[in-house]
Amino acid sequence: CNSPCSSPFQLAALERQVFDFLGYQWAPILANFLHIIIVILGLFGTIQYRPRYIVVYAIWTAVWVTWNIFIICFYLEVGGLSKDSELLTFNISRHQSWWSENGPGCVRKEASMSGIKGLDSHSYVSVIGCALEYRYIEVMHSSFQILIALVGFVYACYVVSVFTEEEDSFDFIGGFDPFPLYHVNEKPTNLLFKQTYL
Question: Superkingdom of this entry's organism (predicted)?
């Protein structure tokens, strides 16, 4: 593992982004996009020995953990949150998690709603036989993201400490000495001009 954001971190973020896109979950899509950008920034910082970028990644992991705790609370309906609300879609659509209709063992049935005025073109979708309720799948996804973020945070702190130690122990040629060994006597510029005219 060369960085706090190696391939498992990228694959987990991309996998999460794909399923949020399939479910039209706009708030998680934006959060995942930011996460992917910061992961790439952390990778760049590690490869290019830029501790500041890695510190940004470490700070972002705290935000990412907080976001995933919110997602867990949202799907478990903690503190007045409701998994059926349109909060994650910014009230733009009534979509839910992709897993709500496509989870393991789920069978999707559509029934037309022609008897209700104004809804002739719509259909009622019922999902039965799910082996695992979709909210628990989302909770597992977020829990996995938290675990990866914590590992990334620890590794980022380690990499920053290694870079900082290397910078502190690096011996510049006479950089820290009050009287450097390679001291060049420079003549004042007015003496140089006098010599050229002589």
Answer: Eukaryota
